[in-house]
Amino acid sequence: MSNRAVLEVIALNAEDAVAAQAGGADRLELVTDMAADGLTPPRETFAAIRAAVDIPLRVMLRAADGFAAGDVDALVASARALRAEGAEEFVLGFLNPDGTPDLVTVERLAAELEGCRWTFHRAIDRCADRDQLRKELAGLPGLDTYLTAGAAEGVDAGLPVLLAEAARRGEPGYEAQILVGGGLRLDHLPALREAGVDAFHIGGAARPDGWSSPVSPTAVANWREALS
Fold this sequence. Notes:
This protein is α/β, with parallel strands linked by helices. It has 8 helices and 8 strands, in the order βαβαβαβαβαβαβαβα. It has helices at about 15-25, 45-50, 70-85, 105-110, 130-135, 155-165, 190-195, 215-225, and strands spanning about 5-10, 25-30, 55-60, 90, 115-120, 145-150, 175-180, 200. It has an 8-stranded parallel beta sheet with strand order 7-6-5-4-3-2-1-8, covered by helices on one side. Helix 3 (about 70-85) links the parallel strand 3 (about 55-60) and strand 4 (about 90).
């Protein structure tokens, strides 16, 4: 069995996607509007990226900044349109005002995404009780990944939580893969890899000149090499 770690890179457009794949990315997270931490991209953007690369794509379902679901009917419509365009993997995650998981919305979207795999994103880092959230979401069809930094502030603050959760792999609520992202740096990798974490997510780290610049294949390649 290969111990190759998964490297997921945020792509905003086809140019990003091509550069990320050239650098060795295994999967892309497709979003728009990073000023709002990533929203659902237009159907046309997905189609252009799908035509440009042949690695897996996970598409964000998020209509506004923050972790409230907002217009759920619009989210469902976006999911349907993207599936009609060929999308097979997604990213989502919503909380109630009290920090508990918005199960009504998540379950409705999971039903809409029947047959698709999906990531519960960094809403877990803002929830009231991580362990309880994991247990409430356990068993939802398609959920195979948690994108998390371990803390809202990022991996620096969340590293102890990430290591503790990695040690619980296989327990109820802890079956899904941990995908570490959010302020992730190369110097975090040794401890995470030693703990058995095998999936990593980068956005700004793939763009040394800032979010206004495209993905750098060289930057992605450096991460790929570090994970080899």
